[in-house]
Each structure stands twice: as C-alpha cells, then as structure tokens.
Design brief:
Blueprint: H1 6-22, H2 30-40, E1 90-93, E2 101-105, H3 110-123, H4 127-130, H5 135-138, H6 146-150, H7 164-169, E3 183-191, E4 196-202, H8 207-219, E5 228-235, E6 240-243, E7 255-261, E8 264-268, E9 278-282, E10 287-290, E11 299-304, H9 311-316, H10 323-333, H11 337-346, E12 349-356
Antiparallel strand pairs: 1-2, 2-10, 3-4, 3-5, 5-12, 6-11, 7-10, 7-12, 8-9, 8-11
The structure holds N-oxalylglycine (OGA) and manganese (II) ion.
Length: 368
C-alpha cells in the first residue's frame, strides 16, 4: 500500500504520544493513563519511544563520524568566540537514516545556547527582521506588495512589535504576547504566503551567526554562503507540519538547523510523503545539517517536549543532585536578569534557527 501518506500517519502517532503519554495536563489519573496505554500497546499505530533515534543512546554511537581535533577549538583567550562550535560536541553521520543528514550533538555549549537564544528573542524578533512575520496576519495587515515591503516599516496596527520581548517578560502569564510570534526572517526574507523569497527585501544577516553556520558545515566538509534564516519560535504546544524547503534557487547547499530550548521530535522522511519518516530527538545546542538527498526530503517537528531544557543542573553542576535549590542559586549568582528571562523562556519553548543559502551564485549582483 504505497500510496498512504506515511508522513502524516507518523505525525499523528507522535502527536498522540505527546498528548496521551507525556501530557501532565490531562485530567485523567496516572492509573487511568496507564490503563489506556496498556490497551493501546496491542495497537500497532501506537508510537513507542524506542522508535526515536537518539544519538546520545549508546546504540547509535556507531554513527559517530569524526572525533573533533585541536583546530576545532577556536575559543579566544578569555572572551568567548560565539561563532565557534563547542569542542566537546560529537558529529553523527545519519546517512543510514537519510542520505546526507548529519547531527552535531552538543554543537553549542550552554553559554552559547543562552547567547544565541538571547539574540533570537531580543534582536532577531524585532522589526528589521520580522516585517514578514506571522503577527501581521494576526493583527490584520496582510500587505505584501513590493513597494510596501521595500520600506521595511512595521505595520502600524501591530502593537509594540519592536518591544515584543521586553513587554512580554513581566506579563502575568509569562511570555504570553511573545508566544504569538512564530517566526522571523534574517537576510533574504521569505514570504510564507507566496512561498517566495523577496529579492528586494532583506535585512543584514548577523555575521557571527553566518560564521557559526559555515563553521558547522565545515565540520562535515560542506560549505555554503549564508543568505537567509527563518527563526522559528515554538511554544511547547506548537508544531511544524511536514514540508520541503524548495523555495531556494539552489538546493545543492546544506541547510543548517540549530535547536535551542526544549527538546523536540524532528521527523525526516523521503522525497515523497509515502515513505515512513524517522523520528530523531533534537536537543538544545544540537545542529542538524541537511545536505545531499536529505535536503530534498520531507521533514517537520510534530512534538516539542515540555520542560526538557534543564541546563543548570545538567551542565553547570553535573555532580550535584539537589536540582531545584541549585537552579535557584545558580540563577541568582551566575546569570543576570536578562539571561534568567531567556532561560525561563527556553524551559517552556523551543527556538530553531534554520539557515540557508538562497541564490546559486551569491557573489554575483543579479538575483535570479
Ligand atoms: C524549517 C524547519 C525545523 C525545526 O524552518 O523549515 O524545517 O527543527 N525547521 O524547527
Ligand atoms: Mn524546513
């Protein structure tokens, strides 16, 4: 039966798993839940956690490609080089799952994760970057003609868009306003309604993020000229449906996809939806590299795993077990309030920076 939409089936199974197995919000008691799940165990459509590809599980250690060498360690004397990658990260070749797919596990240290997440919420979310964001449709402005867009002015009826983050951190329900923002654009802006890049509309691409991504590509001997990014902001209730990234004028260059905050299930399928996709666990600080065939494959994020960003106890204080007390101490001592807000956000959300080359010949002036 090769005509079934296997991608959609897997999305449903994973979403159900999130709703019925993982959710604490259900009014059902633990015993009731166990009973439900026991009944479903005989049902082959039930999703099982052991289907998840988790490179941190020893059974996937054979997929590890290269051990990192000295030249990868490019931290300066004292000051952190934010475009460097974490020298303790592991590179996994996931070609057996999808040809050309790599996962750099722990590509970013915890400090780097918080640095890039701060950039994403404080800077990349702002006017220069999000004039094509989803808030325009929420607030009723759907103008997308070139004359309007080329002015890169915010729509008047979007409230406080330039202060979205600042206004959000002190709300009664933390981040209530900010959580309405689902994506913003860096570099070449992508119009999700027209499914096109807007050649006359671009913001400057942050050079440090561009070099981080080329550094990541170099880890697996790939190269790209970074021209565009979509920054996705996922509250834990959000997901991204299966899709292809085929609006770029070249698909021969890799996509670099950086995960921050809560872990998620990333599905990678095939060039058609009729092939069953593989669920891969992506954690904060991981980078997925889609190159070769995998660049042409359906993929999506059906599930964000709430409360899975636990950086302080895991990385800063690995030897101590009293986590909640430690979290409090560490937050008071180690982080200023800005970083504390970012950590708080990351504990209930996921950020994905999805970085691409758009043009075949970026150095030539003309746009195709
Ligand atoms: C995208 C995308 C995946 C993710 O932005 O096109 O596929 O991990 N994102 O959020
Ligand atoms: Mn994509």
């Amino acid at each position: 039966d090769g005509t079934r939409d296997e991608f959609r089936l897997m999305e449903k199974r994973v979403k159900n798993y999130g709703r019925e197995v993982l959710s604490n919000q259900s009014s059902k008691s633990k015993r009731q839940k166990l009973k439900i799940n026991a009944g479903k165990a005989v049902n082959e459509t039930n999703f099982h956690w052991n289907e998840v590809v988790d490179v941190c599980n020893v059974r996937y250690s054979c997929l590890q490609v290269v051990s990192r060498n000295e030249s990868d360690i490019s931290f300066g004397d004292k000051k952190m080089d934010w475009s460097a990658t974490n020298s303790h990260s592991n590179v996994y070749d996931l070609s057996s799952i999808s040809p050309g797919l790599f996962l750099v596990s722990g590509a970013l240290s915890i400090e780097q994760q918080i640095y890039w997440a701060s950039k994403a919420v404080e800077e990349y979310s702002t006017v220069e970057h999000n004039n094509l964001n989803n808030l325009q449709s929420i607030y009723g402005n759907t103008e997308t003609d070139e004359a309007t867009l080329s002015k890169v002015t915010p729509a008047k009826d979007i409230p406080n868009v330039e202060d979205l983050w600042i206004n959000s951190v002190d709300e009664d329900i933390p981040f209530e306003t900010f959580s309405k923002l689902r994506w913003s654009c860096l570099g070449y802006h992508y119009d999700w309604t027209k499914r096109m890049y807007q050649k006359n509309l671009k913001s400057t691409f942050p050079p440090d993020l561009a070099s981080l991504c080329t550094n990541l590509a170099h880890l697996v001997n790939l190269d790209l000229t970074v021209e565009a990014a979509i920054v996705n902001y996922y509250p834990t209730s959000a997901n991204m449906g299966g899709h292809l990234d085929d609006a770029e004028h070249t698909m021969e260059k890799p996509i670099i996809s950086i995960s921050l905050g809560c872990s998620a299930i990333f599905l990678i399928g095939s060039t058609t939806r009729e092939v069953k996709p593989s669920p891969i666990l992506v954690r904060s600080g991981d980078a997925v590299i889609m190159s070769g065939t995998s660049r042409y494959c359906y993929h999506g994020v059906p599930l964000i795993l709430n409360s899975t960003f636990c950086p302080l106890e895991a990385e800063l204080y690995p030897d101590v077990s009293n986590t909640s007390q430690l979290l409090q101490q560490a937050q008071e001592q180690e982080y200023d309030s800005r970083a504390r807000n970012v950590v708080k956000y990351l504990q209930q959300a996921r950020i994905n920076m999805n970085v691409r080359q758009v043009r075949v010949n970026p150095l030539e002036e003309s746009d195709e």
